[in-house]
Amino acid sequence: MAMITKRETAAGKTKYKADIRIKKAGRIIHRESRTFDRKKLAEEWANKRELELQDQSGLEKVRHAGTLIGDVIEQYEGLFEPVEGWGRSKGYDLARLRKYALAEIPAVAVTSQDLIEHVRWRVSGGASPATVNNDLIWLGVIFKAVRAAKGIPLDLGVIEDARVICRQHKLIARPKQRERRPTPTELWKLSRYFWRKHYRDWRNKIPMLDIMWFQIYYTGTE
Questions:
Q1: N or C end of the chain, less CB within 10 A?
Q2: Using DSSP, how many helices (H) and how many strands (E) does the chain show?
Q3: What kind of fold does domain 69-169 have according to CATH?
């Protein structure tokens, strides 16, 4: 039950302070307060806030209120980065996401509006819709993984809402299909590159040379 306390300020104005205490097993596990000019406003806020905090996810949001999106990205990297490291593209994308203003937003409080604004800002800066789409894809992957692994109540719905709106307004898009096939000279250069990469670097365990030619001969695509 919230406690409403009336007090007078030095200027002679009346203020009402709403104190909320959440107890578990006889111990206070959370406490917060706000001050209002009117008693009714204090009571309404206290009642609404108590209902929010009765749900376990509400308390978890309070506990993780200081966790920024950039922190969540770092947690994801710490939890799931393989021993041999990310691929070049994924590592670059994650590092890039940490540098944006979006990374400074509290993760449990991010909204679809925040994400849409990020997308609009990226597109206005010259990024292609397909490139910006990767930002939302990676955020979805990161939020889902960290929510499952760490129990942080991250809202995947806001990412999906932002993705739907951005797609409708052509702010994001899938990568364009190739308009031509590689030439024999290009295939020869790729073969030499993958051969050197695979046999000269013992850390590279992916047989890209075999994969490339399998794709060409057995799936009918290039």
A1: N
A2: 9, 3
A3: DNA polymerase; domain 1 (1.10.150)
